[in-house]
Amino acid sequence: MRLVSYALDGRTGLALRTTGGLRDLGPRRLEDILATGPGALAALAGVDGPILDAAAVAYRPVLARPGKILCIGLNYVDHAAESPYLKVPDYPAVFPRFSSSLIGHGAPIIRPTVSHDLDFEGEVAVIIGRTGRHIAKADALAHVAGYSIFNDASIRDYQFKSAQWTVGKNFDATGPFGPDFVTAEELPPGAHGLRIETRLNGAVVQSASTADMCFDVATLVSVVSEVMTLEAGDVIMTGTPAGVGFARKPPLYMRDGDVCEVEVEGLGVLRNPVRDEVASLDAAAA
Fold first, then answer.
1. Amino acid 89: pLDDT
2. What is the pLDDT of residues 237-260, one digit of tens each?
3. How would residue 283 be classed by pLDDT, with cut points 50, 70 and 90?
4. Can you give the pLDDT at residue 122?
């Protein structure tokens, strides 16, 4: 099952992606469906709504207000090697994203006025569907409802202003999330072995397999749950492979007018233009 969160004609809702188009499921939120339980998610397949005009739909983040967004740093061997830390971590590096940074497929990533160091990071997002604490690794995937695509666009100079990365990872409109939520049964267990690729203006800048993760999805769910209760609707962003802009010589950062795409096998393509904050404000005022 593939679900899309959308806005259309001043209303928001959820749609089921079918071979015939986007079938409207009404003014539902994926957060509420997941909180109700697995049965509520399965029941959506039987809803017979109208087909939406795909050209008129604006994509919203798959989940607009997740309870927790937990990002994993340095989770691909090659990316750890290109980072300033130069080693694979012994324990997952976890930092938060906040919902105020999220945008949907097609919406512009905003390069802020205070920095030009806007970098790309293609990732797989894990959406929790069943609440749990102290989850055994063997049971972890049963807590995963599905997956999506994320671009953990980062303001690098702000990220490295201190030992904590949070500020550089939470500028407004730097977290593209979508376009689809894909239920877990449509993918290999733990989304293992999927090709992930990031393209900037059509040129491939990241290419890897999710098999290259240092900590796989089951491990991440289990380890995080040692610390906190994972609730239905929480999200774990699983990290990015090598090729990020700041590690290149010279650095390759996104600029106004660029288009960034993240493609993950079985999940689709997340595509967003890049706009300068000043240009966006001027356009809004016009």
1. 86
2. 999 999 999 999 999 999 999 999
3. low
4. 98
d(CA 128, CA 236): 8
Name 270's Cβ contacts closer than 8 Å, sequence gap at least 6: 105, 149, 150, 151, 176, 177, 178, 179, 261, 262, 263
CB 143 within 8 A of CB 132: yes
Q: Which tens digit of pLDDT belongs to each residue from 32-87?
A: 999 998 889 999 988 999 999 999 999 999 999 999 999 999 999 887 677 776 67
Supply 84's token pair. Answer: 């300033």
CA distance 88 to 97: 22
Task: Let me know: does 239 contact 79? Beta carbons within 8 Å.
Answer: yes
Nearest CA among 68, 75, 58, 76 for reference residue 15: 58
Please state the φ and ψ torsions of residue 256, each to the nearest 5 degrees. -55, 130
Q: Model-level pTM?
A: 0.95
Look at residue 163 in the predicted model and tell me its pLDDT: 86
What top-level class would CATH report for the domain 62-285? alpha beta
d(CA 25, CA 4): 10
More confident residue, 79 or 138: 138
C-alpha to C-alpha distance for 13 and 15, rounded to whole angstroms: 7
Three-state SS for 27?
A: coil
The residue ranges of every structural domain in the chain are 1-60, 62-285
**DSSP designation for 193:** T
Residues facing residue 95 across a β-bridge: 71
CA angle 33, 38, 196 (to 5 degrees): 85
Which among 2, 232, 264, 222 is positioned nearest to 124, based on CA atoms? 264
Cα–Cα distance between 190 and 142 in angstroms, integer? 10
Contacts of 56 (CB under 8 A, 6+ apart): 8, 9
